[in-house]
Please model this.
Amino acid sequence: REDLENIKSLGCDHIRLPIDFFDMTGPGPDYTLDPVFFYLLDQVVGWTEELGLFLILDNHSFDPTSEITPDIIDQLLAIWIQMADHYKKHSNHIYYEILNEPHTISDEVWNDMQQQVIDAIRSADSVHTIIVSPADWGSYNHLVNLPEIEDTNLLYTFHFYDPWIFTSQGSYWSDPPMDNLSGIPYPYEAERMPALPSELAGTYVEERYNAYPEQGNDTWVRSQINKAIRFSFERVVPLWC
Model:
């Protein structure tokens, strides 16, 4: 609770809580969420409600190196049916985020899976806001590939890391690792650019590195984030970066 109090004292109004739901369940076909999980999470939910903080229950079950395949749908549905049933009577400060950065799965397949989860949640809970995401790591370029969803209590999310070579420099979790690449300035300045490490030559990192003179500036960044803004205005839907 002290952590949450400190967060609120900084002026924050919400917390996104990453949860590895897929490791919290028993085996199929029921995929029952562990009672200890609910015991612990209920404490956090109670604290955020008392403090007036919004709490996003974020399904963060897959790290960047994990493949997401269509056969996760049964466990995904089971998890969210249980979550919706458990929290349906709580305040509207609770948000459900179906899945963080869906990847290695096509737009068409993911869109169908996401609609199934929305329908499953709504079978138990018609009140709480659901956070929906496009495929390709929640890319803003894929927002336009989302279908028109009839539910009016959705928050559309996208992830924005561009210019990627700047925001991801030094990352050890990327493939290939970039922990030996640092010092890339923003905005781009040729005289301040570090050399590309030889082990990254010939990879997609080199492509991003070579594109940085064009992308490392406010004009290009605005041109990209405007794609998401246009989506929001055209669909008349709320958007969360």
About this structure: The chain has a mean pLDDT of 97. Strands lie at 14-19, 54-59, 94-97, 129-132, 154-157, 239-240. The CA atoms of residues 112 and 147 lie 9 Å apart. Residues 218-235 form the longest helix (18 residues).
